[in-house]
């Protein structure tokens, strides 16, 4: 049978696509793991290294600052070097810098190692994301992108489970092994990615059509060729100024605001889950059990949201997600002296209800910008939201000490209400529109 007229956008999923999903989603697993593992060991290493609350905040926020730098670097590198080479940068950085934490002697050294790990994570976003989107048939792109958010939270849950197991050994320097544990994921990720081909779309954009054709034949079968790759307009480089002036400024504002407001409370709660639960008088087994339970509820929230995204629509989902999760945070502020069960129920409710805004972080910016600015807009959204998250994370230990847990929760609720206002005013509806229609400004 001739495949001359079958676009590779419409082929059925094959083994290569499934393997590529595993190879790329490893980056998100790593991200969830490294950003959460710091909270698990915070109390121990803080005491061992004699950190002030300023340095506690700096160490917790360091990876987020690194992600901000790495996000821009990853976009630039994947334009220059392709997707394939930078695909290995993240795993190498994770391995080397995680292992180095076994010998760390100061808050400053820990800050710089975590900063470098953050750069590795930041590189993953544009590089692993581009590879996945550029090979994935169009029908599966949305669900696969939403799935990466779920993988992130699974990585976070794994961090709490592994971290608490290592701490429970009671070894005096157990926290060092907790912080070094991501090295294992780094080496596995490196090995799994060996053999990944370069993106044919990138090769074509560099005029290397013979190599692009060879990759297509290898991935899709010998009857496929460049003729099966849909014609693409050559992507013109676009500056931030041109993006804002072309009428997409309002959308960039929406993506930056909604993304920031959906991650600031999550990262702040996450980096300090044990500390926050302790401040809410949940100590002992509640602390470790609570962290894992809440993480798994984030996963549940993301799975529910992924299931109903096409039923409810994007706009309704982001508005409801912010409204109800903000009310859960308000209740946490009001009931900060409540019973352990009440606190866990409210934390759990927040975790499930914010799922809608979480999965839309990768769906919205990929849908509402045209091809030539899509990667740039996603990178901008990710980087800007991480600045907000870094500030929020840095502020949590200081806020817990100065204004107390109740007011800290009220502040997190206020951030969520800003996200709600931005969504009501600015969120477009893109359900049932094609990518072209969703990205055009006049629907």
UniProtKB/TrEMBL annotation:
Location in or out of the cell: Membrane
MF GO annotations: transmembrane transporter activity
Annotated Major facilitator superfamily (MFS) profile domain residues: 20-431
CDD domains, per the entry: MFS_SV2_like
Domain of life per record: Bacteria
InterPro entries: MFS_dom (IPR020846), MFS_sugar_transport-like (IPR005828), MFS_trans_sf (IPR036259), Sugar_transporter_CS (IPR005829)
Family membership noted in the UniProt record: Belongs to the major facilitator superfamily. Sugar transporter (TC 2.A.1.1) family.
One cellular component (GO) term of this entry: membrane
Membrane topology type: Multi-pass membrane protein
Presence of keyword Protein biosynthesis: no
Transmembrane listed as a keyword: yes
Protein name per its UniProtKB record: Inner membrane metabolite transport protein YgcS
This protein's encoding gene: ygcS_1
Keywords of the record: Membrane, Transmembrane, Transmembrane helix, Transport
Record-linked Pfam families: Sugar_tr
Regions crossing the membrane: 32-51, 57-77, 86-104, 110-133, 145-162, 174-192, 253-273, 288-309, 316-334, 340-363, 375-396, 408-427
């Amino acid at each position: 049978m001739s495949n001359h007229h079958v676009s590779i956008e419409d082929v059925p999923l094959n083994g290569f696509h499934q393997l590529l999903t595993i190879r790329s989603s490893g980056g998100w697993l790593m991200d969830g793991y490294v950003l959460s593992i710091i909270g698990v060991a915070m109390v121990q290493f803080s005491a061992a290294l004699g950190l002030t609350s300023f340095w506690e905040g700096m160490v917790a926020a360091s990876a987020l600052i690194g992600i901000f730098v790495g996000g821009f670097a990853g976009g630039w590198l994947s334009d220059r070097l392709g997707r394939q080479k930078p695909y290995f940068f993240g795993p190498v950085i994770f391995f080397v810098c995680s292992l180095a934490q076994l010998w760390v002697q100061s808050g400053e050294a820990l800050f710089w190692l975590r900063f470098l790990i953050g750069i590795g994570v930041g590189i993953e976003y544009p590089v692993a994301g581009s590879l996945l989107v550029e090979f994935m048939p169009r029908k599966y792109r949305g669900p696969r992108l939403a799935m990466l958010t779920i993988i992130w939270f699974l990585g976070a849950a794994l961090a709490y489970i592994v971290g608490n197991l290592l701490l429970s050994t009671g070894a005096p320097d157990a926290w060092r092994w907790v912080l070094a544990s991501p090295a294992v994921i780094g080496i596995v990720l490196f090995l799994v990615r060996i053999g990944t081909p370069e993106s044919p779309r990138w090769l074509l954009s560099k005029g290397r059509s013979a190599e692009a054709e060879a990759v297509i034949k290898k991935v899709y079968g010998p009857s496929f060729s460049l003729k099966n790759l849909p014609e693409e307009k050559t992507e013109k480089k676009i500056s931030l100024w041109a993006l804002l002036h072309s009428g997409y400024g309002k959308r960039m504002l929406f993506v930056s605001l909604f993304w920031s407001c959906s991650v600031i409370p999550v990262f702040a709660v996450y980096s300090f889950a044990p500390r926050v639960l302790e401040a809410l008088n949940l100590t002992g087994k509640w602390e470790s059990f609570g962290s894992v339970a809440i993480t798994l509820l984030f996963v549940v929230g993301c799975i529910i949201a992924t299931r109903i995204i096409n039923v409810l629509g994007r706009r309704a989902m982001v508005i409801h997600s912010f409204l109800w999760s903000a009310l859960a945070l308000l209740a946490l502020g009001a009931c900060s002296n409540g019973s352990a069960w009440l606190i866990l129920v409210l934390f759990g409710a927040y975790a499930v209800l914010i799922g809608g805004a979480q999965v839309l972080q990768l769906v919205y910016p990929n849908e509402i910008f045209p091809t030539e600015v899509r990667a740039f807009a996603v990178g901008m959204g990710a980087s800007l939201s991480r600045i907000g998250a870094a500030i929020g994370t840095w502020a949590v230990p200081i806020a817990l000490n100065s204004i107390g847990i109740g007011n800290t929760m009220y502040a997190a609720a206020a951030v969520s209400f800003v996200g709600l206002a931005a969504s009501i005013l600015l969120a477009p509806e893109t359900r049932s529109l094609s990518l072209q229609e969703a990205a055009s400004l006049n629907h």
